Amino acid sequence: MRLLIVLPGALGDVVRALPLLGRIRRAHPGAWLGWVVEPPSAPLLASHPWLDRAHVFARPRGVRALGPLVREVRAERYEVALDLGRGAKSALIARASGAGERIGFARGDGREGSWLLATRRLPPQGIERAKLAQFLAFADALGLPPAPVDFGLAPTPAEAREAEALTAGLSGPLVAACVGSSCPSRRWFPERTATVLRELRARHGASAVLLGAAPDAPFALEVLRATDAGVRDLVGRTTLRQLLAILARARLAFGPDSGALHLAAAVGTPAVSLWGATSPERSTPFGSERLAVVGRAPCAPCFLRDCPIERVCMREIASDAVVARAAMVLQ
User: Fold this and answer.
1) DSSP string covering 9-20, please?
2) Which of 62, 76, 179, 211 is deepest in the core (most CB within 10 A)?
3) Distance (Å, rounded) from C-alpha 161 to C-alpha 155?
4) What digits encode the pLDDT tens for the residues 133-161?
5) Nearest to 192 by CA among 326, 285, 300
6) Domains of the chain
């Protein structure tokens, strides 16, 4: 079998689709498995042991990137394409792959008419079903036997050494504060993040690293100004593979809904996740469901990228609630 997964999207989605890849590989050890992915998540798949080929869709180049991608994908002669992306972009790529069988989401779970290009659709999943379970539903559609949830991710020895160097000098249990998010509505607050780090240091002797992308640097600077010792700013200073290795080294990760938290959970690090604009039922990091902290508001979850009312839901999340969840791990 030659099978293509089409999921170009965000890091958290790519991480949560890895158990599907593993289930396919266990059922078909001799299959040729490919994946269409965009550059930010590509390093996660480039050397993944279950994947034969990562096709990188250079989205910043726009339509100019589509032709080379389609030619590359069609050359692999895929027989089955799984459209995990839900939208028109992934549906068009699956259709252009030349695969005779294209499995996608049902109309109620898709958008932009993506279901129209599928030859077969999943049963309705529902907005509150965990995304990881929704992705595994593609394995059910293929008739594959059940398998343990596994992500197949681990730092290489060289990456582990890099993480050790980046965190050298930090004593006590290491806490990874994942301060960023792709959507402003999901962000928490620098002063509360700093309060959590101070309390974890005072109560558990924990040190911390601040992790995020370059645009999160102002947030990180505010956190640093409000803390004293034992905090290192690595925002915008790590590759994706270094991030993976640091999260694997950490005793605990915390922050708002983000790909970094899903990556932490995938390498076995407990993740305290903060929820408001998005749904914890749908997206809590795997294995860390009991550590979720939910901010209540009449409009939550709204799934909006930008909040028009100053993130009321996230303001409902108190620092002591986050400290209490962290203590469940650090004690």
Assistant:
1) S-HHHHHHHHHH
2) 211
3) 9
4) 999 999 999 999 999 999 999 999 999 99
5) 326
6) 2-141 (3.40.50.2000), 157-330 (3.40.50.2000)
